[in-house]
Amino acid sequence: MLVPASIWPAFQCSENGGAGWSATVSRWDARSIPPGAVVAFTDAVDARGLAYEDVTLQLGALQPL
Known about the structure:
The protein is mostly beta strands. Helices cover 0% and strands 34% of the residues. The chain has one domain (2-61). The protein has strands at 2-4, 20-29, 36-41, 55-57. The protein has a four-stranded antiparallel sheet with strand order 1-2-3-4, with no helix packed on it. It is globular, with a radius of gyration of 12 Å. It starts with a strand and ends in an 8-residue tail after the last strand. The mean pLDDT is 92.
């Protein structure tokens, strides 16, 4: 999946031509409001080299790669 860079405009994205971060949906979180997909970033790391944390996003915000 692609997490569009427009979701976090303050962060520069260098993946996928700047379009967004590559990720996988690790599970569906029906308890969140609204329900969402728990997303694990596949390549993104912070300045310290640590992987980005998993986040819950609305499924409609994600795009196919």
